[in-house]
């Protein structure tokens, strides 16, 4: 086991952007790759999003993903208007790096380890296709960013 969450391999870097359509074209040009599709976060009936411990049925975003290396993804996130970690970041800080993500095998254990380290759970949700979950841990005080824990459910 390495580090607080059992791995030190970064799986994703997420950026908050005002306009995912414009930004994804620029990133595609920069990387020399095809422009990826834009995908919505998914319906609340599946995602069951919570923000700061409360149900957040209106939390939404549009996302685009680039695979930029073995096991590494760049994510662009355009927040919806409702309160969420994404909207909060855009309102308070503007566009920029929102999170660094790690793939974990056991979200509950990883959350507990993060909390013992001093991070707090800010937002939780199920992937829009139901295949896994994400947990945003607020690490801004010490780590200067949000830490995202990604768990893919076993089939």
Automatic annotation (TrEMBL):
It comes from Lacrimispora celerecrescens. GO terms for molecular function: lyase activity. It comes from the Bacteria. Pfam families: Glyoxalase_4. InterPro entries: Glyas_Bleomycin-R_OHBP_Dase (IPR029068). Keywords: Lyase. This is Lactoylglutathione lyase. SUPFAM superfamilies: Glyoxalase/Bleomycin resistance protein/Dihydroxybiphenyl dioxygenase (SSF54593).
